[in-house]
Amino acid sequence: MEGSVLPDQARGESGAVAGDFDAHAYRADFPVLGETMHGKPLVFLDTAASAQKPQAVIDAVNGAYGSGYANIHRGIYKLSQDATDAYEAARDAVRELLNAAEREEIVFVRGATEGINLVAQSWGRTFLAPGDQIVLTEIEHHSNIVPWQLLRDQIGVEIKVAPVDDSGQVDLDAFTALLGPKTKLVAMPHVSNSIGTVLPVETMIALAHDAGAKVLIDGCQAVPHQPVDVRALDADFYVFSAHKLYGPTGIGALYAKRALLEAMPPYHGGGDMIATVTFEKTTWNDLPYKFEAGTPHIAGGIGFKAAIDYVQAIGLDRIEAHVDALRRYGEQRLAGINSIRQIGTAEARAGILSFVMEGTHPHDVGTILDRAGVAVRCGHHCAQPTMDRFGVPGTVRASFGLYNTEQDVDALVDGLAKVAEIFG
Amino acid sequence: MTNTTPFTLDGMSWDDVVETFDLMDDWEDRYRFIIDLGRKLPALPDDAYDDAHKVRGCQSQVWMLFDRTDGDRIDIRGDSDAHIVKGLIALLLLIYSGRSAAEIRATDARNQFQALDLEGHLSAQRANGLFAMVQRINDTAAAQPAN
């Protein structure tokens, strides 16, 4: 996008170490971060729920409606064709982001949740049979549990759950033991949204493939903060949402290997997904349009591309190092508060800090932090089984984005000191 | 409030709470006060902590009990596993408990909370579930036969 506030390109391309990651400069790209909350400067630590948007994304969405808007794919006129090009450029951007082989393997969906439901209903209902098994992990988001339960209730598949150890990492032996001839699908997060564990997905995918199962990865928490290569991982399905990648809400992507998508029937019927329609018979459009019924989220797609361009310019490896450094700094600071117990202590973890504070409910902590201008997430994080596993009703979760700084961590710690004082 | 509610906490009525709040301009003091109010609420009987008494829509767990006493008065009890939410329940009890169904129906918690500058807690989307609790109170009152 012209005139967008992209970060220092030269620095972004250098792939420099976290040491010269200038989060303060990137902050300036995010208008919301200049706001206040209850009269205090906003300290935003809820990026794992939804990331803030840089001006480049806001401009792209505004531009999509303000100067280049028309329905896409069918218009003969220039305005429509330009909008189509802009929207389809997002598909190319996603393909490149994930290093998928072909743009036809990228299906736009409303978000990761819809992507998983699409796979469950289209692939699952077609290729699974009663008694087949789906293996999940104990640290799933509800979005990667409920679609499979719906499928179970429809066709009688079984759901098995791979346990995690006390650190919140998947127990690979137990996982392997669950795999067998009946296992047809393994569905798991790349990174846990509630406790930040980075799963050894490459190893787990290989193990699943050895057992003859397909693998779906929920990449919502991975794609925004680390390079992801679906071909290197050999993932069969990979889903993520744009809004967690600093992009618009209401759009996300499902990657699937071409052969799988070709064999799968459409999920929704309607416009755009057809080749020919008569009352007797309808034939399907080519990939990926077969799965994209109805007028798509045009402006969202255009904003999605702007978001991908934005993080690519900074460098996902650098963003990964930055959020990792913040998480480590946060852990160090939290270790100084006696009443805090961290939930999720696996060696491999992303930019997510989950904890409980003795004598308080996460809701209490969140309410006081809110008044102190600190936005964190409190509760079960749409992962109730994970909370059950660790015997807590919920946690306080601070999650980091590319715009967070050590000062944000300090503000969190100051806020927690206030909580301790109030409830002490 | 037009009537004097029979329900008090440590001798404190709703009007006393409003008065005390007026004297505090610091949000921390106000929350401390709310938390202290919550601590004054007695625990519910053990068997009340079940699904039937649970109020959905709260991030923390909330339980409410309703007893019809003294003709048409409705006594309300409540508890939560979160301190601040428990304090908000105490405020609701000061507004509603011990009143008749007709009085409850005629009372708008939003107006009351405005006096405490806390009405922001009452939107349907707020995670504290206060809205759901008020709804439960109103539903209970609505289910009582009119006099």
UniProtKB/TrEMBL annotation, chain A:
One Pfam family recorded for the sequence: Aminotran_5
Superkingdom, natural source: Bacteria
Keyword Transferase attributed: yes
Family as reported in the entry's similarity comment: Belongs to the class-V pyridoxal-phosphate-dependent aminotransferase family. Csd subfamily.
Name of the protein this chain belongs to: Cysteine desulfurase
Gene3D superfamilies on file: Aspartate Aminotransferase, domain 1, Type I PLP-dependent aspartate aminotransferase-like (Major domain)
Classification via CDD domains: SufS_like (cd06453)
E.C. number: 2.8.1.7
MF-aspect GO terms: cysteine desulfurase activity; lyase activity; pyridoxal phosphate binding
All residue ranges annotated as the Aminotransferase class V domain in the record: 43-412
Catalytic activity of the protein: (sulfur carrier)-H + L-cysteine = (sulfur carrier)-SH + L-alanine
The keyword Methyltransferase belongs to this UniProt entry's keyword annotation: no
GO aspect biological process, one term: cysteine metabolic process
Cofactor entry: pyridoxal 5'-phosphate
UniProtKB/TrEMBL annotation, chain B:
Pfam families: SufE (PF02657)
Residue intervals of the Fe-S metabolism associated domain: 18-138
InterPro entries listed in its UniProt record: Fe-S_metab-assoc_dom
Signal peptide: none
Similarity annotation: Belongs to the SufE family.
Protein name: Cysteine desulfuration protein SufE
